[in-house]
Predict the 3D structure of the following.
Amino acid sequence: VKRLVIDPGHGGKYPGVVHNGIAEKEANLATALTLKHVLINELGAPFEIVLTRAVDGFTPFHRRTGIPGTLFFSVHYDIPNGASPIYHKKHDCLSCYVAQRLSRLTGRKHPVWSTSMAAHTGGRLYIDDAKYPAVLWEVAPIDMYQDSKEFRLKVVRPMAKALMEVMHELG
Ligand SMILES: [Zn+2]
C-alpha cells in the first residue's frame, strides 16, 4: 500500500518563524490537516496518509523520517518576504524529479532547490534522512499566511491535485 507521510514542520517548544503573533508551527499543522482533508474528502486519495504530528508537540526528526512511506512531504512557512521554493533531498534523483513535477504541476515560478541550498539551516535539512523520496514545501512566506480556512484551501488544493499525480507515478 502506498503511503504519503505529511510532516507539519516544527511543533511544541520549536515554533519556527513567528510573524504578527502567528507561529509557523501552527500554520504548518493547520495546512497539513487541510491537505489531508482535501486529499481524502475532495479527491478520494487511493493511498494511506500519515501525519508526523497531529497536535502541537515536537516529534523528534529521526521519528518523523523513520515513518515508512512512499513520499515524505514536509510543510513549512519559513521564509519572510521571500520566494517559497520546494526543496528536494540532496543526492537523490527521485526526490529531485518529484520536486520538479510538483513545482510544474502547481505552476510555481521559483526553481526547485536541493536541501543544500537551504541556507537558514546551514545547508542540511532533516528530510535528507528519509529512506525514500522526500521534499519540503515552503507553502508561502510566513507574512502571507492568513489564519483562515479559505486561505488554506486556496494554497492546498493545487498541491493536493499535484500530489495525487505524483503518488500515482511513484512505484
Ligand atoms: Zn519551518
In short: The pocket of zinc ion is lined by residues 9-10, 16, 24, 76, 78 (CB under 6 Å). The longest strand covers residues 3-8. The radius of gyration is 14 Å.
